[in-house]
């Protein structure tokens, strides 16, 4: 993939953790709700296709972290997005990475990501994206596909249905699809 040099922060981590495989993961959150989104539908020429859309406003947050190299993902749903939810997600990412490896986790600078009270596991090092640059986070590509292919053109009754739809969507996405959606040209194999 792309360049012949790994990013410098990954090279510095390889020097700090010579006995571990260093993986680069990207993390992001997205809001999904009963309103959902409408997307294109196939229909006969000249016809007007219809779709359903809910009028209620319950929301659920999707948290995901993806390693573009392996396609591994650590995803969860939460009724909120805050430091407590981020701490739970960091623990899930840490468990997915495993104790024998180390993760450089690239994420945005949301207030709950930069808090001094964040409990960062020892096998994770946080690196932040530049401000106002969501296009540098490949998980954004995954959100687009997840919304358009799994979470659109639907009416969901309540929080349990939102959670079930999000879980089904995450479970339908394979490691190969994660590698494809989250591939970044400047990231090289560092392990």
Provide the spatial order of strands within the biggest beta sheet.
Answer: 3-2-1-4-5
Radius of gyration: 18 Å
Count of folded domains? 1
Number of helices: 5
**Strand-pairing-aware structural class:** alpha/beta
Shape: globular
Low-confidence stretches: 1-7
| CATH structural architecture | 2-Layer Sandwich
The CATH topology turns out to be Nucleotidyltransferase, domain 5
What attributes does this structure have?
191 residues; Nucleotidyltransferase, domain 5; 20% strand; globular; disordered N terminus
What's a quick, concise take on this entry?
By secondary structure, this protein is of the alpha/beta class. 29% of the residues lie in helices and 20% in strands.
Task: Write structural notes for this entry.
With 191 residues, the protein is an alpha/beta fold. It has a single domain, classed as Ribonuclease H-like superfamily/Ribonuclease H (Nucleotidyltransferase, domain 5, 2-Layer Sandwich). 29% of the residues lie in helices and 20% in strands. The chain is built from five helices and five strands; from the N terminus they run αβββαββααα. The longest helix is centred in the middle third of the chain and has 15 residues. The radius of gyration is 18 Å and the shape is globular. The N terminus is likely disordered.
Give the SSE layout.
Layout: H1 8-16, E1 21-33, E2 59-66, E3 73-78, H2 83-97, E4 101-107, E5 124-128, H3 139-149, H4 159-172, H5 175-181
Parallel strand pairs: 1-4, 4-5
Antiparallel strand pairs: 1-2, 2-3
């Amino acid at each position: 993939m792309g360049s012949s040099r790994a990013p410098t922060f990954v090279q510095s981590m390889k020097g700090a953790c010579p006995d571990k495989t260093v993986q680069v993961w990207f993390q992001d959150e997205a809001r999904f709700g009963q309103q959902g989104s409408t997307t294109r539908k196939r229909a006969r020429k000249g016809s007007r296709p219809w779709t359903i859309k809910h009028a209620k406003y319950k929301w659920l947050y999707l948290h995901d972290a993806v390693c573009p190299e392996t396609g591994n993902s650590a995803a969860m749903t939460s009724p909120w997005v805050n430091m407590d939810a981020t701490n739970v997600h960091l623990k899930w990412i840490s468990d997915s990475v495993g104790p024998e490896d180390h993760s450089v986790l690239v994420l945005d600078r949301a207030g709950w990501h930069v808090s001094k009270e964040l409990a960062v596991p020892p096998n994770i090092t946080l690196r932040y994206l530049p401000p106002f640059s969501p296009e540098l986070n490949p998980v954004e590509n995954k959100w687009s596909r997840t919304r358009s292919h799994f979470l659109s053109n639907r009416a969901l009754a309540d929080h349990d249905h939102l959670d079930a739809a999000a879980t089904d969507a995450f479970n339908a996405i394979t490691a190969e699809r994660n590698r494809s959606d989250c591939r970044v040209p400047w990231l090289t194999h560092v392990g």
